[in-house]
Amino acid sequence: MGLDSGDTPLVLLCPAWRRWGTARAVKQNTTILHSRADNVVPFADSEELVRSSGLPASALVEVGNDPSAGRPGAAGGDAGGVQEGAVTS
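^ thats the sequence. predicted structure below, dont judge the formating
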């Protein structure tokens, strides 16, 4: 989140923004991929990040159901496949 990506859109996977760094918002044109089954980074943290950044609810996309999706070496390391539609709160 503290990355200077210029105009390039960001895609974040299970962002642990509460645990690391000081950023509390992301830029517009950011998409967040997160599993509700994540047992490390709470899904609610991503919902809050979307709200605090002023992003539309469609910026948060629920993926898979593997608690370790996206973690290196995990069986679900491909984020479990993106499901159609966005998560709404």
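The mean pLDDT is 81.
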